[in-house]
Amino acid sequence: MHKNIFRKLLNNILPFTSATNTEEISADKIADAVVTLFGEDTEGVYCFITPKQYNVIRKSADFIHIANGQVKISGQVGEVYGVNLVVSNRVTNGTNIFLKQGGLQIAVKRGVQVETDRDILKKTTVISADRHYVADILDANKVGVMTVKLLNKTN
Question: What's the CA gap between 86 and 84, in Å, rounded?
């Protein structure tokens, strides 16, 4: 899936993050969640995490930073136990989304519509192109959610 389309998809289906909590997450919790959600079929799993969670995970000895040129999704930063980690500001605090290929689909509601408008005084032409789409869960067995404990800051 193209990186820009995926970023727009996240913007449309995931809520905004707005909290001042520290999220308790670990590589072990991610590995346990993948086995619980998908059983033996653990290949090609993406886990969406917040920037704060990324800060915690990247300090883990199990975190493998992704090499340049191997990014498949915009925001992908690395992996833990074979699970691809994607950092997103659209992930709600305390909830992480797990996704396998084929879990979501993008249905095109209307193909590309191109419109032009000519300004004869400025001698310019404006060209606009629109494409309407909708995101939908294609296979609920390939989408999962993990809830993590939120710790309040006492500083």
Answer: 7
Q: Where exactly are the structural domains of the chain?
A: 3-151
The C-alpha atoms of residue 76 and residue 74 are separated, in whole angstroms, by 6
Cβ burial, residue 29 (10 Å; 0-12/13-18/19+): middle
Instruction: Give the C-alpha separation, 128 to 138, whole Å.
Output: 31
CB 65 within 8 A of CB 78: yes
Assign domain 3-151 to its CATH architecture.
Answer: 2-Layer Sandwich (3.30)
Q: Where are the beta strands (DSSP E) in 62-140?
A: 63-65, 76-80, 83-87, 95-100, 104-119, 124-137
Statement: the pTM of the whole predicted model exceeds 0.90: no
CB 90 within 8 Å of CB 14: yes
The DSSP secondary structure of 86-98, one letter per residue, reads: EE-TTSPTTEEEE
Instruction: For 128-146, give one letter per residue: b (16+ CB within 10 A) or e.
Output: eeeeeeebeeeeeebbbeb
pLDDT digits (tens, 9 = 90+) for 6-34: 566 555 555 433 333 345 788 888 888 88
Span 101-120, pLDDT tens digits: 888 888 888 889 999 999 99
Instruction: State in Å, rounded, how far the first CA of the chain is from the last one.
Output: 42
